[in-house]
UniProtKB/TrEMBL annotation:
This is Phosphate transporter PHO1 homolog 1. InterPro entries: EXS_C, PHO1, PHO1_SPX, SPX_dom. The keyword Membrane applies. GO terms for cellular component: endomembrane system; membrane. It holds the Pfam family SPX. Residues 2-337 form the SPX domain. It comes from Tagetes erecta. It is found in: Endomembrane system. It comes from the Eukaryota.
C-alpha cells in the first residue's frame, strides 16, 4: 500500500507546492510529541478555573457539543485584518490537554497551514473568477462580430452592384458597450501571482493576510441599441475596440506592417463617422483561437484548484488521525469540523464556474458536442505500452551485436588505425559520426525527461507540450535504439561488402540512401513514427532559422542552445551533403568539398549559424520584452562567434599571433559562458541564500551534486583546449579524437539541460504559475490612441 506522503507528493501541483499543507513538517512535529510521550512520565492535569470553564462553555456552544465530556481543544475564529477577507483560526489547548511545547508548536503550525490554505484558495478563486468575467466579455464581442460578418456576407451576396469583391471580407462595425476596458488584464493577473508569492513567504514566521485586490466592475446595463446596417464601431465612453493578434510569425508581421498601414491611411480620410474596426475572416479566426486557448487554460486552472482543495482536505484528515493515534486524544472530530466549514472546503464557486465553462465551450466551439469539448478541456494522456519497453530491449540487443561485429571488421581491416582507408574515413565515417552525435543527444534528452519526471519538474508546461502528443522517455529511448540499430546495421553491411571484395564504386551510394531515408521519414506526411513530434521538431527548426521573424518561446531557444552544441554534427551534415550533391562520389574526390573556396566558406558559415540564430532570438526577445538581460545574453553568443572566427583564422594561418588571439578570445568566451550557466541559467552562486553558493530552493536533496555539476561543467567547457594543444592520443585517428571531444560537448549540454529546466520550474513555482496566461484579442483603447 502506497504511503500517503508519497501519494500526496505525487499528486500535488508542483508549482503550488509551497501553498499546500506542510504535511512533512507536521509529521516531524508529531514525531517530537511521540518522543516526548515515551521519554517522559505523564504529568498531573491542572484544575480548571471558573473563568476557563465559562469561556469553554461559550466556545462549545459555537462548535457544537460533540465529545463534550472529552473535549481537549477549542478552535477560535476571528476576523482577519482589514486588508484581507475571511477569518483566521487559532487553537486553544484546554486544561485537560498536556501543555507540552511540542503539542503547542504542532497546533500553532496546524492553524498556520489552515489559514494559509484558506487565503491562497480565496486569492486564486478570485483570479479565476476575474479571468472568467473578462473572457465572458471577449466571447460576447466575438459572437457579435461573427454575426455581423455573416450578416454582411449575406447582404453582399444579395447585392448585384459590388465593385470590390475583397471588401466583403471586412466589416467595420460599432458595438455599444458599457463595460470597462480589458487592457492590462494579463499583467494584472501576473502581478497578483507575484504578490501572492511574496505574501505566502510570510507564513514561515507568522500569518499575514493578503491584500485584497480590487474587484472588476461588473457589466452595467444591457447593451443599448442594435448594430446599424453598416455595422460601424461606436465609441463607448470615449473607448474604441481594437483587435490585437500577436505577431508570432512572419506572415502576421508583414501583413501588419503593410495592410494595417493601408487601413490607417484610409481611416484618415474618414469624416465625423470616426474610426472603423477592419476585420476579416482570418483575423476573426485567430481571435477565436486565442479565446478558445484562454478558456482551456482557465478550465485547467479550475481543475488544479479542485485538486488543491481535495488534497489539502485529505492531508488535514490524515495528520489529525496520526495525532490522535500518538496522543490517544480525540481532536479529529473537533478540528476536522472546523476545516470542513472553512472557506477553501465550503466554497462552491469553482465547481459552478467549471460547469459554466464546460457549457459555454460546448456551445461556442464544439456545437454542443460534449465528448469533443472534453477532448479539449480534459485531454487524456497517451497510455504507455509494454511493447515499447520490449522493443527497446530488442533493439538494444541488436545494436550491441551489430556494433560488435562492425568494430571487429573495422579492426581486422585497419579501418580506424594509423594506416586507415582514407576514402572510407573521409566519406563514410562523417555519416557515422553525425548520426552518433545526433542520437547521443536524443538519448540524453530521454534521460533528462526521466529525471524531470522523477523530480516533479513540469517540463510539459514549460515547453508547452500537449499531454497526448509529448514524447515519454521510453519513446525517446525507442527512437534512439531503433535508429542506431538501423545506422550500424547499414554500415555493417557496407563494410562487409567492401571486405568481401566489392569495389567502393559499387557500394558508395549505400550511405547516401541511409541519409536520404532518414530525411524522407522526417518529412513523411503519413501518421507513422511519431508524426506530431516530427512535425513539431520541423516547426521549431523553422522558427530557429527565421528566428528574428518569429516570436521566441521557451522550446525555440532551448532547441537553439542544443544546436550550439552540435556544430560538429552540422559540419558533417554539410560535408556529406556537399559530397553527394556535387557528384564528388562518382570520382571519389573527397577533397573537393574541403579545398574548394566556396564550400570551405560554407563550412565555416555553418559553424557560426547556431550562435547567430541564438543571438537573433535574444534580439527578438529584447524587442518584445524590453529586458536588457537579453542584450547581455546576446553578447555571450557574439563572443562565441568571435572565438569561432579566431579558430578559423588560426586553422588557415598557424602563426603565434593567431594562437594568442584564439587563447584570449576562447578564455573570455568560456568565462562569459560559465558565468551565464551558473548564475542566469542555473540560478546558482547566490551568496546570501539559505544554501550558501547555491540557491534558496533546491530540487535535489544532496547539495554536493550541485557543486560537482558546476565543476564538471567547467571541465567540459575547456574541451576547446584540444584545438590549441593538438594532443595526440597514441595512434588513434584524429577524426576519432574529434568525435570524442564533440561527444563530451553533447554530454555537457545534456547535463546542462536538467539544471536549466530546474531553475525555470522553480521560477514558476515561486510565482505559483501553473497555467498559461493567454493574451486576449479584444481591447478597448482611448480614442486618441
Amino acid at each position: 500500500m502506497v504511503k500517503f506522503t508519497k501519494q500526496f507528493e505525487g499528486q500535488l501541483i508542483p508549482e503550488w507546492k509551497e501553498a499546500f499543507v506542510d504535511y512533512w513538517q507536521l509529521k516531524k512535529d508529531i514525531k517530537k510529541i511521540h518522543c516526548n510521550n515515551t521519554s517522559s512520565s505523564s504529568k498531573p492535569i491542572r484544575k480548571k478555573s471558573l473563568t476557563n470553564t465559562l469561556f469553554s462553555s461559550i466556545q462549545l456552544s459555537l462548535f457544537g457539543n460533540q465529545c463534550r465530556d472529552r473535549e481537549f481543544i477549542h478552535v477560535h475564529s476571528k476576523l482577519a485584518p482589514t486588508t484581507s477577507k475571511g477569518v483566521q483560526y487559532e487553537t486553544e489547548l484546554l486544561e485537560q490537554f498536556d501543555h507540552s511545547e511540542a503539542t503547542s508548536a504542532f497546533f500553532a503550525l496546524l492553524d498556520l497551514q489552515l489559514n494559509k490554505v484558506n487565503e491562497f484558495y480565496r486569492k486564486k478563486e478570485k483570479v479565476f473568477i476575474d479571468r472568467w468575467e473578462c473572457l465572458e466579455k471577449q466571447l460576447h464581442i466575438l459572437v457579435e462580430l461573427k454575426t455581423a460578418l455573416k450578416y454582411q456576407h449575406k447582404n453582399k451576396a444579395n447585392s448585384s452592384n459590388q465593385h470590390d469583391s475583397k471588401e466583403e471580407d471586412f466589416i467595420s462595425g460599432t458595438i455599444s458597450c458599457d463595460e470597462e476596458s480589458n487592457k492590462g488584464m494579463i499583467d494584472q493577473d501576473l502581478h497578483d501571482d507575484e504578490n501572492l508569492a511574496e505574501e505566502l513567504d510570510k507564513y514561515d514566521m507568522q500569518f499575514t493576510a493578503l491584500p485584497r485586490s480590487q474587484e472588476l466592475e461588473k457589466e452595467g446595463s444591457k447593451r443599448e441599441g442594435e448594430r446599424s446596417l453598416s455595422h460601424c464601431i461606436s465609441n463607448c465612453h470615449e473607448k474604441q475596440l481594437k483587435i490585437r493578434i500577436p505577431l508570432t510569425n512572419p506572415t502576421r508581421a508583414f501583413s501588419y506592417l503593410l495592410w494595417e498601414d493601408l487601413i490607417n491611411q484610409s481611416s484618415k480620410k474618414q469624416n465625423a463617422q470616426g474610426k472603423k474596426l477592419h476585420i476579416n475572416k482570418t483575423k476573426l479566426h485567430h481571435a477565436e483561437k486565442m479565446i478558445r486557448g484562454a478558456l482551456i487554460e482557465l478550465y485547467k486552472g479550475l481543475g488544479y484548484l479542485k485538486t488543491y482543495r481535495n488534497l489539502n482536505m485529505l492531508a488535514f484528515s490524515k495528520i489529525l488521525k496520526k495525532f490522535d493515534k500518538v496522543t490517544n486524544k480525540q481532536v479529529l472530530p473537533i478540528y476536522l469540523k472546523v476545516v470542513e466549514s472553512s472557506y477553501f472546503n465550503s466554497s462552491n464557486k469553482i465547481m459552478k464556474l467549471a460547469d459554466e465553462v464546460e457549457e459555454i465551450f460546448m456551445k461556442q466551439f464544439t456545437k454542443d458536442d460534449r465528448q469533443k469539448a472534453m477532448k479539449y478541456l480534459k485531454p487524456t494522456q497517451r497510455k504507455e505500452s509494454h511493447a515499447v519497453t520490449f522493443f527497446i530491449g530488442l533493439f538494444t540487443g541488436c545494436f550491441i551485436a551489430l556494433f560488435t561485429g562492425y568494430a571487429i571488421i573495422a579492426h581486422t581491416t585497419g579501418t580506424y588505425g594509423p594506416q586507415s582507408n582514407t576514402i572510407y574515413m573521409e566519406t563514410v565515417y562523417p555519416l557515422l559520426s553525425m548520426f552518433s552525435l545526433l542520437f547521443l543527444h536524443f538519448f540524453l534528452y530521454g534521460c533528462n525527461i526521466f529525471m524531470w519526471r522523477k523530480t516533479r519538474i513540469n517540463y510539459s508546461f514549460i515547453f508547452e507540450l500537449s499531454s497526448k502528443r509529448e514524447l515519454k522517455y521510453r519513446d525517446v529511448f525507442l527512437i534512439c535504439t531503433m535508429s542506431m540499430t538501423t545506422v550500424v546495421g547499414v554500415l555493417f553491411v557496407h563494410l562487409s561488402l567492401m571486405e568481401k571484395g566489392y569495389s567502393y564504386s559499387q557500394v558508395e551510394l549505400i550511405p547516401a540512401f541511409l541519409l536520404l531515408a532518414f530525411l524522407v521519414l522526417l518529412v513523411c506526411p503519413l501518421n507513422i513514427v511519431y508524426k506530431s513530434s516530427r512535425y513539431r521538431l520541423l516547426s521549431v527548426l523553422r522558427n530557429i532559422v527565421l528566428s528574428p521573424l518569429y516570436k521566441v518561446v521557451m522550446l525555440d531557444f532551448f532547441m537553439a542552445d542544443q544546436l550550439c552544441s552540435q556544430v560538429p554534427m552540422l559540419r558533417n551534415l554539410e560535408y556529406v551533403g556537399c559530397y553527394y550533391i556535387t557528384g564528388s562520389y562518382k570520382t571519389q574526390d573527397y577533397g573537393y568539398c574541403v579545398h574548394t573556396k566556396n564550400y570551405r566558406d560554407l563550412a565555416y558559415a555553418v559553424s557560426f549559424l547556431p550562435y547567430y540564430w541564438r543571438a537573433m532570438q535574444c534580439a527578438r526577445r529584447w524587442l518584445d520584452e524590453g529586458d536588457t538581460g537579453h542584450v547581455i545574453n546576446l553578447g555571450k553568443y557574439v563572443s562565441a562567434m568571435l572565438a569561432a572566427g579566431a579558430k578559423v583564422a588560426y586553422e588557415k594561418d598557424k602563426s603565434v599571433g593567431w594562437l594568442c588571439v584564439v587563447v584570449i578570445m576562447s578564455s573570455i568566451t568560456t568565462v562569459y559562458q560559465l558565468y551565464w550557466d551558473f548564475v542566469k541559467d542555473w540560478g546558482l552562486l547566490q551568496m546570501n541564500s539559505k544554501n550558501p553558493w547555491l540557491r534558496n530552493e533546491l530540487v535535489l536533496r544532496r547539495k554536493f551534486i550541485y557543486f560537482f555539476s558546476m565543476g564538471l561543467n567547467v571541465v567540459l567547457r575547456l574541451a576547446w583546449l584540444q584545438s590549441v594543444l593538438h594532443y595526440k592520443f597514441g595512434g588513434i585517428d584524429y577524426r576519432l579524437t574529434g568525435l570524442f571531444l564533440a561527444a563530451l560537448e553533447v554530454i555537457r549540454r545534456g547535463h546542462w539541460n536538467f539544471y536549466r529546466l530546474e531553475n525555470e520550474h522553480l521560477n514558476n513555482a515561486g510565482k505559483f504559475r501553473a497555467v498559461k496566461m493567454v493574451p486576449l484579442p479584444f481591447h478597448e483603447v482611448d480614442e486618441q490612441d
